[in-house]
Hints:
The protein is 50% helix and 16% strand.
Amino acid sequence: MNTETLTASQTALITGAGTGIGRALAVLLALRGYNLILMARSNSRLEELKAILQARHPAQKIHVVPSDVTDHERHMLQIKEACSHFATLDLLIANAGIGYKTNEWENTWVHSLHTFQTNLLGAVATIEAGKDIMLRQGFGHIVGISSIASIRGLPQTSAYCASKAAFSVFMESLRTDVCANHIAVTSIHPGFIKTPMTEKNGSMPWLMSAEKAADKIYRAIKKKKTRYFFPWQMMIFAKLCSLTPDFIFDLAMKLTRKRVRAFKKNRV
């Protein structure tokens, strides 16, 4: 590891940087002149991304750390150790996440546990480690990648929706806690993004590329938005769902499930 202290530009840390939104954000932030600390479970993907970025931006410092956010204590120590070699931690993006279908006819405890360990506790561990650094330096920006699915419980995604809802509330409380410490907090709520995680899904309305999503997220970060929902079509849908009475919402979800099953049956 290079132990020199880096001062050339701002530093951003991204979890889940190996694929999807995290990788697209790394590419974009490197283009914007950030030094990067990139974390993900796959060392090979991180090294591949590092080689690409350093070839494109030789002036930027790219540091990769293979890390599993569900190994919470070790992950937090890895963040603090990595950041100790940089002058500041200006931007932290808690992006790592997973999603499983939680079918009602199956026991989904193992998948649900893994979902909460990653999407909620792993994200909180990431943020707590970064927050400690930002409190000491007196500034910073914390960004959490939540989901439009945090608005309401949707069929076959109970653990995913619940983990993102809990994380969104955590981010809101965090924002009120650190607002007097010159630390900005932004909660990002994407709709359907084309990533390896969503490839197993069926029809996804208003599907967006990871690169386009990263551009929108970067704009929200620069504006220091507190919460950002996108695309606008999904935002409107989510807001309407949040205002819909339970009996109407339940009926709509029941009809949706029936249509999905009929569609799948006709395709077989």
